[in-house]
């Protein structure tokens, strides 16, 4: 199993799928051509748009790549926080709608992200890797992908989720630490865990998952340097996944304001918030997050739909204080390098760290 993952690319470096425009085909192609494994993000796209990106990527590179899917979410009637809480949050956001001169979105615009149609495309015209976020597909789906020759990856945030993925037939787990930027890929969104320190740091989580399942691990969360990649590999991971590190690359489709904010001293820290989507996601603390985060309900993707127009209007107005500036805890270490060059730098740092570890085995001091 581990070789099936590591054989996909010369380096154990994975470019994370960044929904919302970051993971464009030029970025994925540049990563793949340089020896990493890149991912397209199908989240928030139509099935047709997803397939067009796959075709575009195939025209840019013949190297393996992956596509990430969002699992369907509970319908509004099955989500306890939907209804009156979303209505209350809508009222709170009316001032934002007035300020940005744009209407609030329809919270009931859909909760399945066209999942079934995307599955059908990926099974009909298979890609090398498919990953899943916000849950785990049932065994028949994972078996169908295996039959098609596609390696499946399930994002997990706990040993229990990793065990569920293994039982369902996943080939690989992507272990996401609390340091990660963007949405936490929890299989079940429990608002009772907000702010109680329930999330685990990446090294601890990789260790726990490594002892809980017999699947290859992709480690994700706050990784920005080759030395950190060496650390997660030494802990038991087969590869490391980086998102924020690639967000600032010129090939990334992230908004210019978002890229600039990564190293802007105006933004001093990150937090997990429900303000923009209704699900915990780590981003740079800005005005919108401070003002609305404490009141945002647990209602994804209803809140995502509700605030979509506001976020687009803020970006159009050049106002980073109203945008969702997703970022991992290591955002200040972002380097504005072409993606291929960044892969080369990370690989060199990884090799240096591994050499140092081999030179000083079993915790020997360098002094």
Strand order of the largest sheet: 1-2-3-4-5-6-8-9
Approximately how much helix is present in the residues? Answer: 40-55%
The CA-CA distance between the termini, in Å, is 39 Å
Strand content: 5-15%
Mean pLDDT metric: 94
The string of secondary-structure elements, in order, is HEHEHEHHHEHEHEEHEHEHHEEHHH
Provide the low-confidence segments as ranges. none
Number of helices: 15
Radius of gyration: 20 Å
Coarse morphology = globular
Largest sheet: 8 strands, parallel, barrel
Structural class: alpha/beta
How many strands? 11
Write the layout of secondary structure elements.
Elements: H1 2-6, E1 13-15, H2 25-34, E2 37-41, H3 47-60, E3 65-70, H4 84-92, H5 94-100, H6 115-124, E4 129-133, H7 139-148, E5 151-156, H8 159-168, E6 172-176, E7 182-183, H9 202-212, E8 217-220, H10 226-235, E9 239-242, H11 244-247, H12 256-261, E10 270-273, E11 281-284, H13 287-292, H14 302-316, H15 339-359
Parallel strand pairs: 1-2, 1-9, 2-3, 3-4, 4-5, 5-6, 6-8, 8-9
Antiparallel strand pairs: 7-11, 10-11
């Amino acid at each position: 199993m581990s070789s099936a993952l590591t054989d996909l690319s010369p380096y154990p470096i994975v470019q994370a799928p960044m929904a919302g425009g970051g993971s464009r085909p030029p970025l994925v192609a540049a990563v793949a051509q340089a020896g990493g494994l890149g991912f397209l993000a199908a989240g928030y796209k139509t099935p047709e748009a997803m397939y067009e990106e796959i075709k575009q990527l195939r025209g840019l590179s013949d190297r393996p790549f992956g596509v990430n899917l969002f699992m369907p979410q509970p319908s509004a009637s099955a989500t306890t926080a939907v209804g009156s809480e979303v209505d209350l949050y809508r009222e709170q956001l009316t001032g934002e709608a007035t300020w940005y001169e744009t209407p609030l979105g329809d919270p009931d615009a859909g909760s399945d992200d066209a999942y079934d149609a995307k599955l059908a495309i990926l099974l009909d015209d298979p890609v090398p890797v498919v990953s899943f976020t916000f849950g785990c597909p049932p065994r028949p789906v994972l078996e169908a992908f295996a039959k098609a020759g596609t390696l499946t990856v399930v994002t997990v945030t706990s040993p229990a989720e990793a065990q569920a993925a293994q039982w369902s037939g996943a080939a690989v787990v992507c272990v996401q630490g609390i340091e990660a930027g963007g949405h936490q890929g929890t299989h079940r969104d429990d608002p009772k865990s907000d702010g109680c320190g329930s999330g685990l740091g990446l090294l601890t989580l990789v260790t726990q998952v490594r002892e809980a399942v017999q699947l290859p691990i992709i480690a994700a969360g706050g990784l920005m340097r080759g030395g950190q990649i060496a650390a997660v590999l030494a802990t038991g991971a087969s590869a490391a996944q980086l998102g924020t590190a690639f967000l600032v690359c010129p090939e990334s489709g992230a908004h210019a304001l978002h890229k600039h904010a990564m190293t802007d001293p105006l933004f001093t820290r990150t937090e997990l918030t429900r303000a923009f989507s209704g699900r915990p996601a780590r981003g740079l603390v800005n005005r919108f997050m401070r003002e609305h985060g404490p009141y945002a309900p647990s209602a994804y993707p209803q809140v995502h739909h509700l605030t979509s127009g506001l976020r687009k209007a803020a970006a159009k107005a050049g106002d980073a204080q109203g945008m969702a500036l997703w970022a991992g805890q290591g955002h200040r270490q972002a380097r504005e390098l072409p993606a291929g060059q960044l892969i080369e730098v990370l690989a060199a740092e990884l090799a240096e760290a591994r050499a140092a570890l081999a030179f000083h085995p079993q915790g020997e001091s360098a002094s």
